[in-house]
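hey so u asked for the seq, here:
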Amino acid sequence: MKKYNLLSIILLGITLSNCGDTKKGENSIFNFDTSKFKEQYQPQEALSLEILNPKEKTIDSIIYYVNDTKIGITKATEKLSFELKDQKLGYQNLKALVYYDGGNSEASARVELVSNVQPKLLEYKIVNTYPHDIKAYTQGLEFYRDTLYEGTGNGEGNTTKTRGISSLRKTDYKTGKVYKKVELADQYFGEGITILNNKVYQLTWLTNEGYVYNADTFKKEKTFSYFKKIEGWGLTNDGTYLYQSDGTEKIWKLDPKTLKEVDYINVYSYKTKIKAVNELEWVNGKIYGNIYGKDAIAIINPKNGAVEGIINLIDLKSKITQLPDTDVLNGIAYNPKTKTFFVTGKNWDKMFEIKVTE
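ran it, structure tokens below
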């Protein structure tokens, strides 16, 4: 088995996307020549675009679009070559606006662009083990000014008295003691958190809203609605923008002032689409993301969504107290002073400080 296939199995086990799903336009006059399309493309390749003209209309010109961006014009039925190197990974929606006999008509199709990066399997060693509140259904974890902040959820489905309550908290990571906490109302399921400009941003799961708190006092300064109807999962920032996951393969880039979408990426591990990207952490220009249910962390290029490395942490689960409601790995906090990661899980009684190496 090739190495990249093994890494995809670690992340997903594998969930394959619909490779090469070319979507023919419903137009009966013109269509893309999809017989020339491959099942999947990689960024170093180019698309050869050509229109079929079965009714032999007199074509004047064709304007081509990829993801609603104009990429070129041809005369009659000339071919157009389009390089994919600057495109986002994921499906590329193709459109041709064909001008003929004084009128115009559209043709459409779709191809999939996947990563050409084979992820590295990274090593880790445990530096320290600390106690962690077993009632904490960890959704977000982040260091800020030497203090560990944690966001927790309701822990729905738990069967023991360790069921948690959605909260935002500051903790002493060495002892596990919670020394400041604010709880969410019962109907809200807390999700990912991040701290930017002395403000804590916190998501909720299904209620399409989030909160902004003062990082010092935990006073709620703002309640905001998501820019579109999505689930709230993970959250991080690069010092300027926020990055939000929603349980799919997408990570959204947001303006922290307006909370509106600036951009997005689709996450791919080589040729495999990676869904269920959960808790996020920004480290040295990369996004580290938990993959829900896989006890692994993917290292993601925020510019194109390519997974460049994977940390398989499944062995950590054997080192915690096993309870009926013991849940998955979730929670990544990077301490830039020690250059180590702090990781834990939902209702885990331990938090691990680890050193990651190639």
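The chain has a mean pLDDT of 91. The first helix runs from residue 3 to 11.
lmk if thats what u needed
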